[in-house]
Amino acid sequence: MIGTDVEVVHAPEAATRPGRPAWIRLVLLGVALFVALSAVRVITGSDQLTSSGTMGAALGLAVPIGMAALGGLWSERSGVINIGLEGMLILGTWFGAWGAYVTGNPWAGLVAGVVGGMLGALLHALATVTFGVDHIVSGVALTILATGLARYLSVLTYLDVENAGASQSPPIKQGFPRWSLPGADSALGQVEAERWFLVSDLAGLIRGLTTNVSAVTVIAVALVPISYWVLWRTAFGLRLRSCGENPVAAASLGVGVRRLKYAAVIVSGGLAGLGGVFLSMVATSQYQEGQTNGRGYIGLAAMIFGNWRPGGLAAGAGMFGYTDAVQLRGSAVAVHALLLLAAVGLVALAAWQVSRRRYLPAAVSFAVGVAVYAWYATTDSLPGQIVTYTPHITTLLVLSLAAQRLRMPAANGMRYRKGEE
Fold it and tell me: Where are the beta strands (DSSP E) in 87-128?
């Protein structure tokens, strides 16, 4: 009875996916983008575009973004907007480093960071679910509170500690284990060095994703399919998603709406806290003030880009992580080469829109693609300011292009009171 009624609520979402399943289209799009990237690498000679170092860095940079995005997915599928992901990341960075410093055990730090993120999420749930505070206001307030709290706790804890202070923790002595696929480094390294079209690029991709991978990265990657299974293949997930679509109807069928919203938001905070642990204990070896650098907001953008689906947000996090890795490792030259890829992508998008008889968007995409190509053809590098903010620029561009096909949960951000109709 419950399952039948809730499925009716989700019929519009299913109706927007005719033809191939969404995951097949996502894989095909990923393959097409990788082939285009390989071609751009050959044309421009920017080997950093597909090197194993860049791919490995992209995976690492995508983890905190992906965990924030996954946390946002859990929260918003229950109907609670979570702008406070940045604050939960901050709490994860501080408590993770503190837990490892106090105990000397990185796994204790991981637990502390996850719990820290969950405590922040509990405040957000209390404000939005129980007291009906506007979700945006609560999320912004939580981020401000987390920033100040991290500073205050650092002063209390580290002011008299060597190599630490109000803005950072002492270095963490023991890190998480790292794993590599046996034989991948040497065998694939030889193929990558040949710089063959597509073959060497694929070798660089596999080598970067399977060499010297942190245990936290493995956990984070595994949480994406686990979240999909829980949210889309279990009764618990079905009820939780019904709270984000029509909480009144769900409550009339006996679903504990407030209880599920609390659970979803707290899980959201734990996932964001895990992303914070990665930043302070894997990406670096200590907590540093400001090290989240807006990744919570970029994670929110990745979730929106992924249309509130685990596979889509993982692709979005990977894309944002990749652009960040290119600007960190390849500097202005490699980022300049991405202009050619962007131009090709915009022209291809225009062709696809023409096939859908969307002539005005097609004309705009084509015009922008030609302009980007002209920029690429008439310059040799990009200004340093543009290179530094490549991930943020990418966020804005992707959201502007994907906005027309997005469908958020119907009751996302709406205040729910028990007994309302």
Answer: none
Q: What is the dihedral sign for C-alpha 104, 105, 108, 110?
A: positive
What does the alpha-carbon distance between residue 187 and residue 200 come to, in Å, rounded to a whole number?
Answer: 11
What are the residues facing 358 on neighbouring strands?
none
The pair of three-digit structure tokens given for residue 388, joined into one six-digit string: 């530094």
Query: 3-state DSSP call for residue 406?
Result: coil
Q: State residue 168 phi and psi, 5-degree precision.
A: -160, 160
d(CA 158, CA 189): 43
Specify the amino acid at residue 247: P
Sign of the CA dihedral with 50 first, then 55, 61, and 64 last: positive
Domain 2-329, second-level architecture: Orthogonal Bundle (1.10)
Please, which residues have CB within 8 angstroms of residue 85's CB and are 6 or more apart in sequence? 68, 71, 72, 139, 268, 272, 296, 297, 299, 300
Task: Give bridge partners of residue 214 from the DSSP assignment.
Answer: 178
Q: CA-CA distance, 201 to 198, in Å (whole number)?
A: 5
Chain segment 200-257, per-residue pLDDT in tens: 999 999 999 999 999 999 999 999 999 999 999 999 999 999 999 999 999 999 999 9
Residues listed for the chain: 421
133 CB contacts (<8 Å, ≥6 apart)?
Answer: 127
pLDDT digits 0-9 by tens, 127-141: 999 999 999 999 999
Tell me, what DSSP letter sits at residue 47?
A: G
Task: Quote the CA–CA distance of 34 and 13 in Å, as a whole number.
Answer: 28
3-state secondary structure of 178: strand
* Own/partner long-range contacts of 123-131 (Cβ < 8 Å, ≥24 apart): 124/80, 124/82, 124/84, 124/265, 124/269, 125/80, 125/261, 125/262, 125/265, 125/266, 128/80, 128/265, 128/415, 129/80, 129/258, 129/261, 129/262, 129/265, 129/416, 130/258
Determine if the pTM surpasses 0.85.
Answer: yes
